[in-house]
Structure formats: structure tokens, C-alpha cells
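Me: I hope this is not a bother. Any chance you could explain this protein sequence and its C-alpha cells? It all follows right here:
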Amino acid sequence: MTWVNAVLQGVFLGGLYALFACGLSLLFGVMRIINLAHGDIAVLGAFLIWQISTSFGISPFLALIPTLVVMLVLGYVLQKTMLTRALRGGPLIPLLATFGLSIVIQNGLLQVFSADVRSLGGQAGPIAHASWTITDQLSVPVLGVVVLATAVAVLGGLQLVLRRTGVGREMRATAQDADTAGLVGVPSSSVYARATAIAVATATLAGMFLALRSTFSAASGPTQLIFAFEAVVIGGLGSLWGTLGGGIVLGVAQTVGAQFDPQWSILAGHLVFLLILATPRGRSLDLGGVRA
């Protein structure tokens, strides 16, 4: 039963990784760039929620609402001001630009919030620690269920938007060929800005759940970026449902690895990632656009 519990906890952990990877996958699928600041943007969102929650004494879930609005605008402006110019310089410049943005965010957070670790678990109330006990060795965390359900809802919602709405069709058309889409009246800059805004918002959501289930600091971003990137690669670049599967595989690998030795937890996830890369599927990764 201990192994069953490990797999179950891994599935819930995978939901968090899928949320982190969602924005990364969308941005790569639409714009063909890997946002190296994605993890730091998630941590920035977590700090904003923490600040609002502690300043006004409200639940992190309420603090999430104004934070999401701010981060949506921030994502839109980020694309219009920085990423648009970086995209004109070829595939390497956006990578360097987002790497620079990552350093700026980390140092800015260090200056404002110091290097102290923080958590939102205390402000969230019983949901952060509540669980349903099935047997002595098997329990279901309420927060884990909420995170997994949120990940499914977000990924399913995005899939629906891409498949059924005009905005989604514009994103898919731009992902396939931005120049041709422009010829039929689809402005790629606006499509990219909307995709970036959505990606930043989902990163903020993931940052809040990270802060609810563990501690975070100004230096937490790069680690979350690695997990998100691994989940995206394992699940398939540009595939939203694949991102959920990749996150769950990574989460289960980590929790099962921890059953052998707690020090093997992170290593087991990395090994699964490398194993996927070594397979024929990994060596021929599909670099196509976002798929609906």
C-alpha cells in the first residue's frame, strides 16, 4: 500500500508540474520560444499573492484574483515591449532576453523580499493540510486534489479555446505560419501578446499552489523551470494534454524514487527525463506548433 500511496502522491504532484508547464508549452507552441524566466515569473506571482494576502489579511485564493489581473497585463506588456523586439533577432535572442529577465526578477525579489523563505500554507486555512485517510498507509490530500482538478480544468479550457474559438484558430494559424496568417488579417503581434498573457497567468496560478504546498524564496524559480521543461519534453512539445501526462510521469517518478531513498527523489525525475530523450521519440521531438 505504501507504493500505491507513493504513486497517488506522484499523480497529485504531477498536477502541479503540469500547471507550471502549461504556460511554457503554450508559449513554445505559439511563438517557438522557451521562456527561461517562466519559473521566476511564477515565483513573482507567488510573492504578489503573499504580499496582498498578508497586507489585507485575506485568503490567498482571494488575493489570486487581483494578482491574475496584474500578471495578465504584465504578460501582455512583456510581449509588446521586450519579446516582440527579441523575436526579430532570430531564435537565440529571445532565449538570451528571457534569461536576462530571469536574473532581473530574481535580484529584484531579493532586494524587495530578501532571501527568506515564505509559504502561503498558514493563510490558506485547513485546505493546505487536510486529507482523506483511506487506510493507515493511504491518504488523499485535499490540496492535491484541488491542484490536479485545476490543472485539468486549465488545460481542458485552453484546449477548448484553441479548438472552438476564433482566438484559438488565430493562435493555431499563427503557430503554423505567422507570415501567411498575417496575409489573411491575423496580426501575429496581438496573437503573441495574448498567448504570453495567458502563459504568465497560468504561471501565477502554479506559483500560488507551490506556495500553498511548500515554501518558496526568490531563488525558487530556476528549479521550477527545470521541472516544467522536463514535463513539457516528456509529454511532447506543444501538446497541452501531453503536458499533463508529462507532469504526472515526472511527479510519479519523483515520489517512487523517494520510496527507495529520499535523496533519489529529484534524481529519479531527471533520469526519466533523460530516458525519454534517449528513446527514438525523444530524439525526434516534434517541434510543430501548438496542437488542439
About this structure: Residues 3-280 form a domain with the ABC transporter involved in vitamin B12 uptake, BtuC fold (CATH 1.10.3470). Residues 2-31 form the longest helix (30 residues). The two ends are 38 Å apart (CA to CA). The chain has a mean pLDDT of 90.
